[in-house]
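Handout, section 4.2: multi-component inputs.
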Amino acid sequence: MISFSERLVTIAAAMLPARARARYREQWLADLRDAAELEVRRGGIVFGAFSFATVAVSRDLLGTELRASRTWVQPIIIVLLFAIPLYVGLVQHDLARLLGTPGWDLRGNFDVFSMFMSSPLLYLLFPLYVVFLSCLRLYRELGHRFASNTRARVRLESYIFAKLIVAAGTSFVVFFSLTFLLFVLAFYVWPLIGNPSVEPSGYHLTAATAITQSFTASTYSQVLALSPMAFGVLYSLWVGFCASVWSGLGMAALLIVKNRPVALALPFVVYFAQTVVMQLLGIPRGSFVASIFPFGLDQTTILAGVAPTLFLAAIVAAVWVGLLRRLPLVEGLS
Amino acid sequence: MEELTRLTAATVDVLRVLQSAGDTCWGLRVIKQSGRPAGSVYPILDRLETAGWVTSEWEQDDTRSGPRRRFYEMTDEGATAAAAAITRFDAKTIPAKLGLAGAQS
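Output:
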């Protein structure tokens, strides 16, 4: 009877590209059988097999996926993403003030950052940007049944999982970079150019009290008490994570919903509808929007702030676990 | 044969075992003798094989039933490159280790 360790290395071998499966399955089974002869731990061999399979799959599939998933839409989305907050911050808030006219409406550098992040074009359309950044390749492939033709060469689960990782990773990198760049602009570049439009005295504050007040300005700004850099890094990581979650939802929707345009729009519909419902219920801080972009709302605890997105992340993870088990039944892949 | 893009301490340990084996060497023995975990050794052997430093083949023992052992052997070019790589690695790391030991004593 096949032992548990043998079953595990068989699974690890099955993760490999087709050309390597039989060879490593036999090699690892032989190593397991003879491990006692050389006093090598069987657990080490199992772990080694999984490490090897993970690296091999990552290298093969993620490399291919990373090269192939680039589309002409992505640079447009990225340029748009960076242009919107800069437009709102620098033009809509009056470019003349940047050029030396006395400031008037910002208490400190956190307000500058909030100004960049508070563009409705950015926070209301967030899932749309994520989906167009990360899900278009799967959208097209499902259209011409590319994935089903790939099954002979690569395990379907590995293939789709690699797509999920690349989509979530792309979203994470773009939104982390965007948020961190705007943070650096607000907290480090803005003071270098004389803090245009920053006038704490207009609020009966000093520069020092404006900083202290920013700790309670909105959810997550309490991290500023540690240091601005801690806030910048942690908040950027959070926005990147949120983008990954919405990307995961978009990818799952494409595999579940038969109508692909509807599937592509689903994350935005969920995001928007939940936010409207929360507004109607009188708890705007419980919305997905506020969980990612809490600026302009009263501060709540960090846990309460992250809760809506973490709840969504748990649902998306559960959906993916179910999906990966039933992939062969998914229309467009079978 | 391709150059290795990075030469880690674990890779050098695997190369030493293969070099000392002279002839073919069972993959599991490389794990045992290098003292490195299987999770490091399997990918290194694969990388060496892909780069053309080693070749591998199944054991020829007909008396043992069941799955066959995989044996690795250095190619001629691989053996030369391995010797050079080990010398290079030692030249870089041994003085550093001696310096550290000197500083501690």
